[in-house]
Amino acid sequence: MRLHPIDGDDARAVLEALPAALDGVRPLALGFTPASDDEVPDGTAAVIATSGSSGVPKKVILSAAALKASGAATAERIGSGRWTLALPAGYVAGLQVLARSLLAGTDPILFEGKLTPAVLVGAADRGSRFISLVPAQLATLIDAAEDADVLAALRAHRAILVGGQALSDSIRIRAMDLRVPLVHTYGSSETSGGCVYNGIPLDGVRVGQVDDELRISGPMLATGYLGDEALTDRIFTTDEQNNRWYRTGDRGFILDGEVEVHGRLDNVIVSGGINISLDRVERIVRTVPGLEQAVVLGMPDERWGESSIIFAPHSSGDGMLEEARARVAAEIGKHARPVQLEIGDMPMLASGKPDREMLRRMIHDVPPPPV
User: Fold this and answer.
1) Under CATH, what is the fold of the domain 267-363?
2) Is the domain defined by 4-260 classed in CATH 3.40.50.12780?
3) Do the strands 236-238 and 4-6 form a parallel or antiparallel pair, or are they unpaired?
4) What does 87-155 look like in DSSP terms, one character per residue?
5) What is the pTM of this model?
6) What distances in angstroms separate CA 85 from CA 30, 40, 102, one per listed residue?
7) pLDDT block averages, 10 residues each, the chain of length 371
């Protein structure tokens, strides 16, 4: 089957093209222009170019059956109703909002520009009961919840899905205190979006653990990667019972049926000969007031080989680096303490995630800390 390119930033165009894609007769190319010889299996609904925030971009093939299975499992868990699209339609989370709407027979609420508290209030007034966000969007809405109308709009939703990156404990606790119906999701393009809700796999989803790596099986798994059979064979495996599994690359554990994710297996630096998980450091740093949206990355260090640096979008006062270093030392050890804090505009991907690759390139232009 031939792919049909469509602008993922044009939500209305994606919405109009989606019925034929979900029928498996006109697959969409989202986020890239397909080559003339690109062919996909029968029944493909879409091929999504990933953001590439942690490496080389990949083109994930999603079948109509996988998208429908994901939508049905989501409806079974949280119910059906009207959705608001607050994420780019060219990314899996945004595409799924449109797909769930079509499968439920409802019209999604679309709007121009950035999601603001006023936009959320307007969407709630129009009957929005479900919305999918990234943590930065949720933080903005929680900050504005002192306004009674914003708080009412948040509570009017049956479920507010939040995923795409780690959610800081401070934002999660504030949402709980405000009785916001938060659903923290875990998944990826390779799983047709979120497939674990608040730690519990959706119906039909199995999560396993091999060594420290989480693996996922279920009807919503991607077919593979366009033009990269070797990567497909490495990431998607089949067990002796002929079940397909997706190797997430995430470190995690399953305790009493609940999935706990502890960051990327490969997001590690070696400082002074000691392995340090930057995901763990970042989770601790984000507990510091003012650093809830911080990103922690590795950087070259003449003395230790590697060390870590904090990037934050804004400053709420002095002493944040010292507080972050103290908390990291208390929970991990002095060897894991970040050495630097940079405050400034955070480069963002269209998906709403921090552009970590851009930040990594910026590291080479950051002056070293004072001796």
Assistant:
1) GMP Synthetase; Chain A, domain 3 (3.30.300)
2) yes
3) unpaired
4) S-TTSHHHHHHHHHHHHHT-PPB--SS---HHHHHHHHHTT--EEEE-HHHHHHHHHTTTSHHHHHHHH
5) 0.80
6) 16, 27, 13
7) 93 97 95 91 95 64 97 96 95 95 95 95 97 90 96 98 80 93 95 96 96 95 96 95 94 91 81 81 92 90 83 80 94 91 86 82 64 42
